[in-house]
């Protein structure tokens, strides 16, 4: 996905409080970063508020280390009447940027919301 989306939606460095007992970053921490990035892309595509309704696939490929800086790439993969699937990939810059490691990927579903927080139709361009 990185080649299709040259700029990351989000770049973040984990902090010491984000480490689990194995010395790696909590899976829940990276999941929340993915949800934030997916929400940014989905909100722009829906031209309004959205909510995460499902995580259809999530794969943890490699651990995130404390010194890593992660780049989260997100793009619309599937379009529906009120919802969309956002493909999200996380790449860790490791060893002061000398190495890039794909650490996780997933497919999140977001639904567009109206003023009453109910699903609303999305007007897709094209």
From TrEMBL:
It holds the Pfam family 4HBT. Residues 4-116 form the HotDog ACOT-type domain. GO terms for cellular component: cytosol. One of its GO terms (biological process) is acyl-CoA metabolic process. Keywords: Hydrolase. This is Acyl-CoA thioesterase. GO terms for molecular function: long-chain fatty acyl-CoA hydrolase activity. The lineage of its organism: Bacteria, Pseudomonadati, Pseudomonadota, Alphaproteobacteria, Sphingomonadales. It comes from the Bacteria. Signal peptide: none annotated. Belongs to the acyl coenzyme A hydrolase family.
